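Standup notes
- HV: blocked on the assembly model, inputs below
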Amino acid sequence: MSDSPHRGTLKIFLGYAAGVGKTYQMLDEAHKLKGEGVDVVLGYFEPHGRKDTITKAEGLEVIPRRKVDYRGAEFGETDVAAILQRRPQVCVIDEFAHTNIPGSEHSKRWQDVHVLLDAGINVLTTMNVQHLESLNDQVWQFTGIRVRETIPDWVVKQADEVVMVDLPPQALLNRLMRGVVYTPEKAQQAMENFFKESTLVALRELAIRQTAHEVDVRHTVQDETQGAETSGDDHGSAASPRTRSRECILILITEDPSSAALIRRGKRVADYLQAECLAVCILRDGNLQNIAAAQRETVEKHMKFARNLQIEPSVLQGDDVAQTLVEFARSHRVTQIFIARPQQQKWPLALGRGLVERVVRLAHDIQVTIVAERRR
Amino acid sequence: MSTKGRPDPEQLLRQLQAEEQYYRRGRLKIFLGYAGGVGKSFRMLDEARRRRERGEDVVVGAIQPKASREADALLQRMLVIPQGSVGGVPTMDVEAILRRRPQVCLVDGLAYDNPPGSAHPKRWQDVEHLLTAGISVVATVNLQHIEERREQVERITHKHVTETVPESFLRNADEIEIVDAPPDFALQRGPNPLFVNGTGSPALSPQQLSELREIALLLAADVVDFQLEAYLARHGIQQLWGTCERFLVCVSPHAEAAKMIASGRRNADRFHGDLFVAYVNRPDATPEERSVLERNLEEARGVNARIEALDGDDPADAIIEFARAHGVTQIFVANLLKSSLWDRIFGQPLDHLIRAAENIDVRVFPA
């Protein structure tokens, strides 16, 4: 994080689907700010051909997009350099989860936003709850859609404010049918997929709960800072109940594809419990270079994924995975071990032999969570 | 909870009648705010504006006098039904609204107490009357006026509220929409252009407003969850995934349950989820085992868990069946294996439970 005392503040307008009014509400706020004499610009704005939104953007200064040629087509991305040069007080950047065109300086728009924040520019942005990394499996489970453009949870956690933009699903469906959100053909297609009422109701609940969580962690942090002030220099006993009962979660990374879901789940639980989160990968000789290329590639992919979520994985040497795992857990004061539930066909017939049973047996003093496979 | 199988004819008839009733009745939409000044009235009037633009016949039945400048501007262009008076006290004129028969009527401040001698003591009962008459209503209410949340809110605001609306009225609304403008953070962060335009009630601190905001969001989530379950039941869909974390702690006479229950409570609180504590009835339990179990259940009652007694030959099956029916996302079980008991216990229920849990996480606790 930047040391600058003037780091910009970040405000996220969180919704649960296209068309709930995130951009509209963000632009409404931009107008209010402008009315109060604040210097506001539109750094990136996605009208999606929506009349209300386009009208709402009128009267706000727009920083033209940076033109990027990619495979013969022209794309427009946020022009970070131009915004920095313009130095507004507040910059509006739509679609926080967007992935930039290959060849851009940053692969993700949220990274562009971080540059602006570091430069002391305040940013207003929008995103949908399904773009949150830790909810990826859950969202896939009830929508059937694997959301590709994700934002690591820690990025959202760093935002100063998360506001829920709400709209009842029935009203959203009405908008969709009136052609406010998409063209008629696209609307029809959408209603058969993502925009089923039950899906929307579920996504909406997820977004409301996520916002409640974001509000909760923010005032909890305030509580703790205030507590620190009053407890003063009393270092030893000043630990709040929350720090004293600090939990630590350990995730076992393997080459199995279930590792990604396991990492997401473990990290989400850790975040909610305000627990530390560790991960290990256990290899016979402790050297990634000595395993088969295909296996190495998947393991490395999973480790990179963990790092993206701000978990630093360790590679350990051990012939006996269960024993090495539990020993590491014990020496690192882990309170909960997270392992994937083995696939049905791989479940060994002989009892007490499988990894899960071995870990549970050895970790007789540590909690072990066997994470469900997310299936549809 | 969810009934499987085909609906019987009587059920179909009830469904038909319910549908008929549903179409005759007006639709109720409620804007829920966490404090005065978050902009509920404005949102309601803005919705009215859009509905009018689409050709709906909208009138104002009741409006708070001191809404914002923007709200006043919208109100200028609306048709307002003048207030009536009961015993000299001005109040919403239900009879006049019924005579006017608009498609949609706006009712600000659902929790308002009508003056003595009115047809109904509470304004929300007037709304019920309008709905039954086939008039749709768009209304607003503040968190502090929800009966079931009142105590919780009073602990934060230290202000006693007498006018309330039952939560069931919210649950049965066709739509609720949360008005979630965050509190004015300018107070604690110093001048910052993002936060100077908040309109939070000046009487409350940002911390208090933030706590109220969280409660309002959780209330909205509960209402939405209730509506989701109703929707799934109406359409005969079995829910296989949870949007809300639900914890099921399995206790037995042997387990050191207190720790598990405490952990379950903490997890449920952190996730804003639900907590169940279940035990499997065993006819062969000794009196001593029964008294240990009773102590464990006492612990569960103490933390406000929902307690369930399960029956079944196979405890693991009984637990899984219950967990599935209730959308449980995590099952807490004790690791009862002390070396010699290993094969007898682990070889069966725990092993079986982990296998059968499929899309539910299982957390094994040291015993």
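- HV (later): unblocked. The mean pLDDT of chain B is 83. Residues 23-234 of chain B form a domain with the Rossmann fold fold (CATH 3.40.50.300).
- Next: hand off to the docking folks.
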